[in-house]
Amino acid sequence: MTKSINPGVPVVMWVTLDLSEPKKNSGWIIDGTNQYHEMYQNLHAVVLMGYLENKVTVMDLLKGKAEHDKQDSLKVRKS
Protein backbone atom coordinates (compact mmCIF):
# COMPACT_ATOMS: atom_id res chain seq x y z
CA MET A 1 0.00 0.00 0.00
CA THR A 2 2.81 2.43 0.76
CA LYS A 3 4.00 2.08 -2.86
CA SER A 4 0.73 3.69 -4.03
CA ILE A 5 1.38 6.95 -2.22
CA ASN A 6 5.00 7.35 -3.33
CA PRO A 7 3.96 9.28 -6.46
CA GLY A 8 1.56 11.41 -4.38
CA VAL A 9 -1.60 9.40 -4.95
CA PRO A 10 -3.71 9.34 -1.75
CA VAL A 11 -5.03 5.97 -0.64
CA VAL A 12 -8.42 5.45 1.04
CA MET A 13 -8.19 2.97 3.92
CA TRP A 14 -10.98 1.30 5.86
CA VAL A 15 -10.01 1.16 9.51
CA THR A 16 -11.83 0.76 12.77
CA LEU A 17 -12.53 3.72 15.03
CA ASP A 18 -9.44 4.37 17.15
CA LEU A 19 -7.83 1.30 15.50
CA SER A 20 -9.82 -0.89 17.91
CA GLU A 21 -10.93 -4.47 17.36
CA PRO A 22 -13.69 -4.87 14.74
CA LYS A 23 -17.17 -5.24 16.22
CA LYS A 24 -20.07 -6.96 14.52
CA ASN A 25 -23.57 -5.87 15.38
CA SER A 26 -25.98 -7.34 12.88
CA GLY A 27 -26.20 -8.04 9.17
CA TRP A 28 -28.42 -8.92 6.27
CA ILE A 29 -29.21 -11.75 3.90
CA ILE A 30 -27.98 -11.22 0.35
CA ASP A 31 -31.02 -11.36 -1.93
CA GLY A 32 -31.28 -14.57 -3.92
CA THR A 33 -28.42 -16.36 -2.15
CA ASN A 34 -29.58 -16.98 1.43
CA GLN A 35 -26.06 -15.94 2.49
CA TYR A 36 -25.84 -13.94 5.69
CA HIS A 37 -23.44 -11.00 5.53
CA GLU A 38 -22.28 -9.67 8.91
CA MET A 39 -22.07 -5.92 9.36
CA TYR A 40 -19.29 -4.17 11.24
CA GLN A 41 -20.42 -1.32 13.45
CA ASN A 42 -17.13 0.51 13.97
CA LEU A 43 -15.65 0.92 10.46
CA HIS A 44 -14.30 4.27 9.41
CA ALA A 45 -12.54 5.57 6.28
CA VAL A 46 -9.36 7.65 6.33
CA VAL A 47 -7.04 8.89 3.60
CA LEU A 48 -3.43 7.75 3.85
CA MET A 49 -1.41 10.85 2.97
CA GLY A 50 2.14 9.86 3.76
CA TYR A 51 4.44 7.69 5.80
CA LEU A 52 7.81 7.58 7.46
CA GLU A 53 9.69 4.55 8.71
CA ASN A 54 7.52 4.09 11.82
CA LYS A 55 4.57 6.49 11.32
CA VAL A 56 1.73 7.05 8.86
CA THR A 57 -0.08 10.33 8.31
CA VAL A 58 -3.80 10.15 7.61
CA MET A 59 -6.58 12.64 7.04
CA ASP A 60 -9.41 11.62 9.32
CA LEU A 61 -12.78 13.36 8.97
CA LEU A 62 -13.37 12.97 12.71
CA LYS A 63 -9.93 14.11 13.92
CA GLY A 64 -8.33 16.00 11.04
CA LYS A 65 -4.71 15.29 10.15
CA ALA A 66 -3.36 12.58 12.45
CA GLU A 67 -0.26 10.43 12.83
CA HIS A 68 -0.39 6.80 13.89
CA ASP A 69 2.11 4.03 14.48
CA LYS A 70 2.69 2.35 11.11
CA GLN A 71 2.46 -1.19 12.52
CA ASP A 72 -0.90 -0.51 14.21
CA SER A 73 -2.37 1.27 11.17
CA LEU A 74 -1.42 -1.28 8.57
CA LYS A 75 -2.21 -4.37 10.63
CA VAL A 76 -4.79 -6.60 8.97
CA ARG A 77 -7.23 -8.01 11.46
CA LYS A 78 -9.36 -11.05 10.79
CA SER A 79 -12.56 -11.54 12.65
Q: What's this, in brief?
A:
With 79 residues, the protein is mainly beta. Helices cover 10% and strands 51% of the residues.
Helix and strand layout, with pairings?
Blueprint lengths: L1 H4 L5 E6 L7 E7 L4 E6 L2 E9 L3 E6 L3 E6 H4 L6
Antiparallel strand pairs: 1-4, 2-3, 4-5, 5-6
Characteristics:
2 helices; 79 residues; 4-stranded antiparallel β-sheet; two-stranded antiparallel sheet; 51% strand; mainly beta
Structural class: mainly beta
Number of strands: 6
Overall shape: elongated
Proportion of β residues?
over 45%
| Helix proportion range | 10-25%
Radius of gyration: 15 Å
Give the N-terminus to C-terminus distance in angstroms: 21 Å
Q: Could you give the order of strands across the largest sheet? A: 1-4-5-6
Instruction: Let me know the average pLDDT.
Output: 82
